[in-house]
Amino acid sequence: MKQILQDLRSGATRLEEVPVPIVQPGHVLIKTRRSLVSLGTERMLVQFGNANWLQKVQQQPEKVKQVLDKLKTDGIQPTVEAVFRKLDQPLPLGYCNAGEVVAVGTGVTEFSIGDRVASNGHHAEVVCIPQNLVAKIPDSVSDDEASFTVVGAIALQGIRLVEPTFGETVVVLGLGLIGLLTAQLLLANGCRVIGVDLDPDKLELARELGIEAIPASGGGGIVQTVIDLTAGVGADAVLITASSKRHDIIAQSAKMSRKRGRIVLVGVVGLHIDRSDFYEKELSFQVSCSYGPGRYDPEYELAGHDYPLPFVRWTEKRNFAAVLQAMERGSLRVKPLISETIPLEDYDRIYQNMDTTRSIGSVLEYPGTVRVERRQVRITEKEFHAGKPVIGLIGAGDFTVAKVLPILQKLDANIKYIASSRGMGGTINARKFGIPFSTTDYREILADAEVNAVIITTRHHQHAGQVTEALRAGKHVFVEKPLAITAVELEEIAAAYGQNSGSLSVGFNRRFAPLVRQARARLGDTATQPMQVLITMNAGAIPAEHWTQDPAIGGGRVIGEACHLIDLITYLTDSQVERVAMNGLGQAPDRYSDNVSMLLKYRNGSNGVINYFANGHRSYAKERIEIFSGGKVVIIDNFRKAAFYGMKGDRQPWFSKQDKGHYDQFRIFLENLKDTGEPTIPFDQILNTSRTTFAALDSLQTGQWIDVP
């Protein structure tokens, strides 16, 4: 299928061929008929892409702060690489889509195949959208009209925050697309509407729609005009739908408002606020958030948990429906706002002229010929090196792009496929790294007899199922940690591993780090000299709503991240965990606390202590490993330097940048595939480490030592 993407470095747009996405649980697969180019929002994105480096920095000060923070913690090279990776990933454009349902995911009962629906899907021939961001289109509303649903919801949400009453006077500053929709919806609400804009054509269009329109003017002219039109009272409310860097727009809004009036910002303007403008009149000011309640809430949008109607009457989905009802009744007229209808193939006619166009709304028309079952795209022709394993990569997220693909490229690995759920990420990186096929269906990889091994880097909750399927398909498997997020999943993997011939390796990379290997070699025999190992992980806080913190998706940070550290101690002690106890910070830490201390008792008498903390400061080293054994001490600081005590030779090796063992991990994995087929880590150790994470969580709840089977 075809999809419009924007290059963040140059600002150029292109029509990319990507595989059709597979419908996900709780989602709806939609074949697009029309999509609306929101000229205001998309012009801003294109202008950002066209800007030079200095202009980009000036436009994104909050991103600059993030870069500076990363510089302090990670150094120059990793920070520069991260910035360029971000700019290398194109942006999918568009968020106003109308089309036909061609598949529904599990758990979706509201929609059926063949339904006409509006959604916030991109400019793509097929889109996969969460069910709470989709609304049915009434029969009398055309596809062209329905493509305005989402921008209509943005306008409607601003109105809901203003809370207008019948007969009030509301000023709409800015008569672009959202401004004209806002003004019409206010009229339907029984308000007197005064629209303001600089463009004579927009003023004329507003008047044709029944809106009282006045030209914007410099100084206090516009303020006085509104005061005069309201008999000296001032506007009851002002809705700002303009896009401008000017700060005086807020001041003008305050001056034209009556005492105790309301101002709501829907657009983007300068936000310098003079207290006196608001103080004397006791004005209220609020910024509207997109389509309405539920926006950016993963529980609502991704998990599909609706807000109960008696308590949240108007969610973003219900705003979609209300806009479509207004179109159906004729109180919201959008056909006069369509400046042009362009075939998808000619999309560039819109984007080339975006800086100069005076259009209100441009609609893209889709041919409808896309085959929704086409889930694979051939990117390039490539001959594989004889005698080397052929790899299929499942997952195209940040870790894959930052670590896995560059390392596999250096190792000259034979990668035949890359799979991604949406198709875009896989396709972009297939082109970048010379991978022949991009697919949205990982089972196509498993069905290919030429593929010897798969590398799985998807989200944690997908690991167990994909590992089990791959083993049963006869493939060798490498999966990023964790292996599983429940004990039941882990035992299912163990059963599949025992019944099939493929090897299974897990991405516990720290045991392959050069400093760790050196430490174990120099410490000697752990059978006669048990170890005491203390690891402090200054992990840093992440938002509670981040997917890794979600028990059903990420499994929490003990399962998803602390497993690394358990495996590291297992490698250093050359033993397995026998018992574990874990305590969390606070009076009643929950099962998914990320401030914990873990005690590990190993079968050979060694002890391990893991302090996994999210409440530290980023200026302190992220990882510190202390090893005591037989009169010797090793300290490893952040995988960049080490100190050896009680031993001959170099006491303080160091590296210019971190080496956590990723490269050697994959090198050994590929060498083993070619030679012995052995896993990088013995399976019984993988199993023991995974079982230890679950036992540690049980200990946190019971307050007892837990035996690890």
UniProtKB/TrEMBL annotation:
Gene3D superfamilies found in the cross-reference section: Dihydrodipicolinate Reductase, domain 2, Medium-chain alcohol dehydrogenases, catalytic domain, NAD(P)-binding Rossmann-like Domain
Keyword Acetylation: no
Highest taxon, organism lineage: Bacteria
Keywords in alphabetical order: Metal-binding, Oxidoreductase, Zinc
Gene Ontology MF, one: nucleotide binding
Pfam families in the cross-refs: ADH_N (PF08240), ADH_zinc_N (PF00107), GFO_IDH_MocA (PF01408), GFO_IDH_MocA_C3 (PF22725)
Residue ranges constituting the Enoyl reductase (ER) domain according to the UniProt record: 11-364
Protein name: Dehydrogenase
Naturally occurring in which organism (per UniProt): Flavilitoribacter nigricans (strain ATCC 23147 / DSM 23189 / NBRC 102662 / NCIMB 1420 / SS-2) (Lewinella nigricans)
